[in-house]
Here is the input.
Amino acid sequence: MGKEKIKLDKDLLDKVKKLSELAGYSSVEEFVAHCLEKEISKLEESDSEEEVKKKLKGLGYIS
Amino acid sequence: MNRRDFLKTGLAGAAGASLLGAAVSPDLITRAYGRTATRQKLIILGFDGMDSHLFQVWLAEGKLPAFKRLIGQGDFRTLGTSIPPQSPVAWSNFITGMDPGGHGIFDFMNRDPKLYIPVFSASETEEAKRTIRLGNLVLPLSAGKVKQLRRGRAFWQILEEHDVPATIFKMPSNYPPVETRQKTFSGMGTPDILGTYGICNYYSTRPARAAEELGGGGARLHEVYLIGNRMDAKLAGPVNTFKKDRPDTEVDFSVWVDPVHPVAKVVIQGQEFLLREKEWSDWKRVRFGLIPTQSVAGICRFYLKEIRPDFKLYVTPVNIDPADPALPLSTPDSYSKELARRFGPFFTKGLPADTNALGNGLLDEQEFLDMDNMILAEKDDILEYELNRFDSGVLFYYVSSTDQRQHMFWRFLDKTCPTYDPLLASKFGSVIPDIYQEADRILDRVMRKADKDTVIMVMSDHGFNPFRRCFNLNSWLRDSGYHALIDPGKDSNEDFFPNTDWRRTRAYGVGLNALYLNIRGRESQGIVPAGAEAERLLREIAAKLEQAVDPQTGERAILRAFVSKDIYHGAAAGLAPDIVLGFNRGYRISWGSPTGKIARNAFEDNKDKWSGDHMGAPEVIPGILAMNRKIKAGTPALYDLTPTILQVFGVDPPPEMRGRAIL
Here is the structure.
């Protein structure tokens, strides 16, 4: 799997390091990846366009 | 997995907003229920979409003898519907006694003003906020949440405060069921196990042919192969949010086809059953595994449509199992289980008849009716059960088949309908009168059980109109200079306005009756200043809409373009669309406009089997009200029935109710 670097503000990075340790993550990368995955899934699954379409198709009013 | 566990996983949220049910406080469920026996009783029959004009014709012809008897004892009125007359709006008027400005349900869809996309109007969900990841698993630490977006108190909640008991069976627009100690079972709006309004599974050895038929969606199509005489397939379940990559769950099953006779054996999760060609199975329980300790229950029925030359197997949308509901179906929780214990599995999806399957040709007319008859029979049994023990308070009972059959079979009443077929009309032309007569038989049963202290109220939420011509609101706005395209030469007939130039667009349509201005500061790329300019533009567009003429017929498409601030009252009025369309008879919004498709022409024929609808101006589409009591009001409306229900029990209506008692 390819890896890319991203830049973080130093203050934020310090917080991330501290919290990832407190939360028991094995690395800062794992913590950051988890946070991002969670945010992405929220965006992807928040009553998305497709969800609305799927639901309304069941009702029969739209194509 | 029980409902609370299912909610906790957030699994429901992943499957769609409406799938996540509001957790009902266990305190409310387990607390002792203080019922007051009432001498006065009230039975309400709600026939969705029962049309005033058709009703009066068939009443005059003597086809509705029970209604005639009822009206002879009391009264009849046409019943004013909601603006717009969409079922979620209309039933919310009835439930709360308010108009949409009060209860906040304006359409099946609202729009997100930041993204210009439709969002579901009935409920919203939140997945579990706190989760923990263990390898490939994501485990929830907090509960997901669901919110019923309808505002205002339901009449049975108000009655509860006065210790008047109520049983409310399949009330539309009450998913998730609002908190109450009354017995309620949710109706229209209740999702299938996928969180949708109904996606069936269809298995065929000739999927290409089925795919052509599947223009309107609403089904999962599976290509299957008969190897020897065996077919292996998968039944799709909800998304598994326990897994990091959130795969769909599925259940394997197999079918063995008899090489000579038109019979097949289906094997699914240890259940084996034989089906002849053209035969429906009874309900089958299935469990979708999530992780070794967790699974979700659903129920479905199989229909073996054809064995040879093509193999075709239809499976109903997987309904939530009332015996083990993964999502909230009833209050208290035990009511759903009580009914399941007594009657076995039954349809729980809000509008259970699969109109999509008929629309797509996956089921034919007779097969659709067979399914709808099963739905009616199940409900009949439950009505009988509730009638036999009804001794106090209110009993509400709802029938969806009047609405669903009119949507799909209107084409056989109307020779000018683009999809009229004389051969099919000779066979199915009586479907709509028959369902009105079935409603009459239901009323007859109720009347036989009712004593002199029982008020009977029969009502519908709206009437029905033919749907012959489609009106694409966004195309009309484009043609009228209110909606600008980035590339006018490009096909814009795709969802969610991909070719719209928002910096030059002043108005757009999302939803079935709704028009919005592109207001600066409200919409993310709004250009119309709020205030006087918006007001002037609203009036201008409304006036032009009311003059919009279909070039093919010379008829006006829209009888009334309501400026919402003129018609809505209450705290939610500010959330309304800016203009609400009231269509002329024969017209409805096009199939694509509600989700932002902009067709080449603003008008086109409706070539769908879905040939009756109810998006009209309220004056062309009233419902019915028949009672065994005299009605004082000359022109009652849906929201007047709510204070009338309270009036029967001597309960004063709360000040927020717009309606007035009519007896």
